[in-house]
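Q: How do we represent a protein-ligand complex in a form that can be generated token by token?
A: Start from the inputs.
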Amino acid sequence: MNLEELRLKCLDCHQCSLGATRTNTVFGVGNPAAEILFVGEGPGEQEDLSGIPFVGKAGQLLDKMLASIDLSRERNVYIANIVKCRPPHNRDPLPEERSACLPFLRLQTLLIHPKIIVCLGKVAATTLIDPEFRIMRAHGVWYERKGFWMTATFHPAALLRNENLKKDAYADLLGLKEKIQQLGVRTDFSLAEG
Ligand code: URA
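Then emit the structure tokens for the protein with uracil bound:
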């Protein structure tokens, strides 16, 4: 199966109840050849309406965060979410919704095969790194899991709520940049390759 076939399969998924309330499934966006995968929580209102991850206010901040270390969704990263459909009223996705949706992210990850996975916020970090993950304590820490280098930083929506966290988030981004250099992760894709 390729990424497009997986996307089409995801589009009409009804494995959990979020399938009944969504406007659009939000599969992912970016360069499928990217070696860096960012994982958020789940679509919000704008994402549900557009079918594209991180296009609302938090998404605009994410794009700025990426740009601060010369990354972009058009060129050298891929962006996905733990759940592909919007939880009503933007509540946290429930454990059964996360587990129903996780096979999509697993396959997406296998097909993209990134070297680095960056969790954006608590939901992604507790789902992908450790159920006990504490973002305040462990943001910016690196873990080597199943052949991937993984880390977590603050969700951009959390940074919009609490500007004081931005300094720490920027330090995490600099840590990411260092890891990219250390591992020789490819970022120099041309726009045409993205
Ligand atoms: N927040 C997320 O976690 N993901 C999105 O796609 C948008 C907002």
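The beta strands are 29-30, 36-40, 78-81, 116-120, 143-145, 148-153. The domain at 3-182 is CATH 3.40.470.10 (Uracil-DNA Glycosylase, subunit E).
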